Amino acid sequence: MERQWSLEESVKVDAPPSVVYGWVSDLRNMGRWSPECRSVWVLRPPARAGSRFVGFNRRGLFVWPTVGRVTRARADSEFVFDISALGLPIARWGYRFEPEGSGTRVTEFWEDLRTEGYRGRIAVFLGVLFAGTDAARRAEVNRAGMRTTLERIARTATAAG
Question: Taking the complete model, does pTM exceed 0.90, yes or no?
Answer without folding.
Answer: yes
